[in-house]
Please model this.
Amino acid sequence: MKKLSLFIIVFIATCTVALAQPRAIGMRIGWGIGASYQHSMGEKNMIQADLDIAGFMSIQGTATYNWIFPIAMKGPGTFNLYAGVGLGLGYAWWGDLIGLRRGYSSYLGRHWGLYYGYSGRSNFGCFFVGVAGQFGAEYNFKFPLQVFADFRPIIGPCFYKKGYGYFNYKKYENWEAGKARSTDFYLSGLVASSIVIGARYKF
Model:
């Protein structure tokens, strides 16, 4: 009973300290749109969690741990650079469009029906997961508003439904379900919602 009571006290104290740290919530806009949440972990660190409609073709969630580098400047506000690393995952309902188009520049126009959704069936959706790297800059006004810009690519694979996915364009005469590669590098993760600007309300 004493151990349980001690655990409850420590848990409540931890939550109280966490909730007392500055937080911010807002929107991100780039090649896509999303929601962004930032939670301070002291003066030099913070955690950022984002949920995006990335590239208007996928839904993705990311969480990064960031180190903050304050930049001295005159004026009422504060300016920071930050960099961090974390994880990202999601689902692209049209698959990795950049990866699928790789090598198809002269072939797509004539065979779009086969390319998109395998003879008209939309089965090119893929799940993706990877390491998220982040570098950005933020300006904090004296009132509770923060504006920012950052670059946050996701590097990792995408996984297609078995029998569909990225085809080897050099062997397009054999475009059959069984010939498809079910795993490929997620190239869209390098650009989809990677470069954004946004604003957050601080509380």
